[in-house]
Amino acid sequence: MSNNNNDNLIIEKLFKPKSIAVVGASRNLEKIGGVILSNLVKNKFNGKIYAVNPSAKEILGVPSYPSLLDIPDEVEHIVVAIPAEKVPEIIEEAGKKGVKVATIIASGFKEVGRADLEEKVVNIAKKYGIRILGPNVFGVVYTPMNLNATFGAEHIHKGKIAFLTQSGALGIALMHWTSMEKIGLSSIVSMGNMTDIDAIDLAKFFEKDENTKVIGLYLEGLGTGKGHEFIEVFSEITKKKPVIALKAGRSERGTRAVASHTGSLAGSDAVYDSALKQAGVLRASDVEQLFNWAKMMAFSESFEINGKGFVIITNGGGMGVMATDASEFNGLPLLEVPEELKKEFRKTMPWFGSPNNPVDLTGQSNVQNYIEAIKVALESELVSGITVMYGEVAFLDPVELANGIAKTLKEYNKSRKPVNVVMLGGEKTKMGTEILEENGVPVYPIPEKAISSMAALYKYSKIIGKANLKI
Amino acid sequence: MSNNNNDNLIIEKLFKPKSIAVVGASRNLEKIGGVILSNLVKNKFNGKIYAVNPSAKEILGVPSYPSLLDIPDEVEHIVVAIPAEKVPEIIEEAGKKGVKVATIIASGFKEVGRADLEEKVVNIAKKYGIRILGPNVFGVVYTPMNLNATFGAEHIHKGKIAFLTQSGALGIALMHWTSMEKIGLSSIVSMGNMTDIDAIDLAKFFEKDENTKVIGLYLEGLGTGKGHEFIEVFSEITKKKPVIALKAGRSERGTRAVASHTGSLAGSDAVYDSALKQAGVLRASDVEQLFNWAKMMAFSESFEINGKGFVIITNGGGMGVMATDASEFNGLPLLEVPEELKKEFRKTMPWFGSPNNPVDLTGQSNVQNYIEAIKVALESELVSGITVMYGEVAFLDPVELANGIAKTLKEYNKSRKPVNVVMLGGEKTKMGTEILEENGVPVYPIPEKAISSMAALYKYSKIIGKANLKI
């Protein structure tokens, strides 16, 4: 909302407060204030935690006070988990206490026609210089500080993706989903009504945050008159970090659904599409794709792309064809392998394999074939990036293969080429997938998703002018 | 390849032989003949099993003989797991033995330039009236008979989907994947070089097979001059059962990759696309989508669709918008909910919910809200089908919800409306997913996949003239 440095410092307190207080804390885990406090405590937040509750002296080991003003310490960030009607009073108290930022969980404001109540809260906050996240949010997560001030999932898988969401239910569901899928997050922020802190403010924080490599955004609308600022700010951010947006309300009827959901004037999708493009923001078509792309970006060490085209290495011709189709549809240029390089690839495979691109090691290949073929691709200046594909077969153990690929990439990927892997199979293959991802190699279950993610990285490389392909 | 009834009876022996012999059986599980025998034994094939091995008297409890001719019993189906050069000799023996059908596992034929050897095998087989699957295949699975005559995954999840694949490596990987994902198969067949038995022959079997509700097809090419027959045969099959094809080689470069992989003259994709459309075959864009759609078809009790449009029930506005977008993009007509029905929906939700379509029960809904809303949708004649969506939240247990939805559908879905469910969340949600699928309700992880699958069902209903929507 505002550009000055002081405000940026204050927003930092949302993620890195020295102390946080849960107003409406409870020992009842069926209450929102109970879950938030429990998530803070169980995640071992790297700061002080206080509870505000009219009657308790201590909840879950956390000291509890009847009011904010009773806390015998500075409080930088409060999470307000009480009914909407009582929020203005608490913000008044927070002002007196010198609180910097308030996350207002309660719904019952603008989204249900109570713009008056929301305005009242905003005016009090302004008077004291308090920044507000919300209202109508599930809270905020910032894993580098072990901060989980949400009533969402308790466990978060740590990583480099920051995800900002305008839909609360979606965000909570995705907290659970990313944890299960072991997709690593630096942060997840519920933006709710965006009465003060909005996507622009938050993205500015993540632009500088060294714990975040890629920003994901679920948007339904920007707020009236925000388009120009969005383009301006995000154009700068995307020069430093990839931003991937899922803008819902793309269809005519979807636009109407947005209006009924958030009350945002959704505006025509063409306008958003053009704004996102101008700002250098990549646009995903569903949440799974958003996280597929984000994983690729988060695991990549460089966005500089050289050479003359991408190479696919596979143990199955069918998967090779699928990847080839996907490359063309996603605008990923495949290398035309010259004779000399073909000779090199041929040495890595059974005699009936194919050194063309896709490089087909055949279903009878072994770990050594993969390692050798990957080395050839890594060492050739012609190769821009590599997608390695494995379809589970009886005679090639996916766990051994995963270890082999991870080791080879660590030792030989000196030029930091983008590499991703397809692992299509069952339980054993899933174990291989986990080994690769623990080693920083992004893995996808089918060729199309790997290629789409590689193409997204290539697209981002072009956006920031780091793609130097000689095609 | 041939149309007469006798041939159809013989192809039945591929799936339902009274006895099967593995030629090249071994106790060494690092050999193909070892894995095939082991898979047959461990799956407890409902028929007799014999091994052919020069030295053993018994392998894995199965009686073993030096030659086919030594087996003191009729043998209907042989699986030939010996090197290509020795195959003609075995087929000659099989002819003398009166074998009906031979699955030839070995590669080393047409696909590597040895069309001469393949022709030799075909000629011997013709002489004796033996039908051939392959060569260059991983085998055949038919779960109603507990037949797993492959060197692929040992465990198969039983169900109603038959999957025919021209790519071996892909097929084996998908055996593992479908088992892990609990996608139920009646059969999986590796088609390899299709020197005799081809997709058309196999599909004719599944057309009549009462254990199969939907046929999935991974195709790279049909074989020269087969287009007309394909359209003719599949036009009949699709009147009875949905067929979903993934035709790879869609792009210009993909077409070239097919040629190098199978040696098929791939032909232009437009030609295939038109043939598939004429034949009433649905075309998926990747294997995951193929199985998503197939699952929807396999679980549906009826393909008749009435009413005035589909309804989405959700606990999150964001997911509702995504589903709305997907409906428009996939041609799935959503119901404009009339005032009277809105009143009914309103009774099922908190006051701040929305009775429009998507019907938004809000993040504060409980199991009872879902049950009541689903009942309203099931009981309204206006509703053509229902997508129920759940994003994991702290205060609504997905397992309880899954049980509630399953029970409600069992009791109240008298008109057999198509219903599917989105379950987006973590481990607990996954448990809910499994409960629903065990109860015959297809579940998807994100809105777009559920809507795409519902739209595929609607499209099939239109193809067979059973969609009576009054829009």
UniProtKB/TrEMBL annotation, chains A, B:
Pfam families, alphabetically? CoA_binding_2, Ligase_CoA_2, Succ_CoA_lig
- The CoA-binding domain, residue ranges: 14-109
Superkingdom classification of source: Archaea
Molecular function as annotated in GO: acetate-CoA ligase (ADP-forming) activity; ATP binding
What are the coiled-coil residue ranges?
A: none
What SMART domains does this protein map onto? CoA_binding
Keyword terms of this UniProt record: ATP-binding, Ligase, Nucleotide-binding
Give the residue spans that cross the bilayer. Answer: none
Name the record gives this protein = Acyl-CoA synthetase (NDP forming), alpha subunit
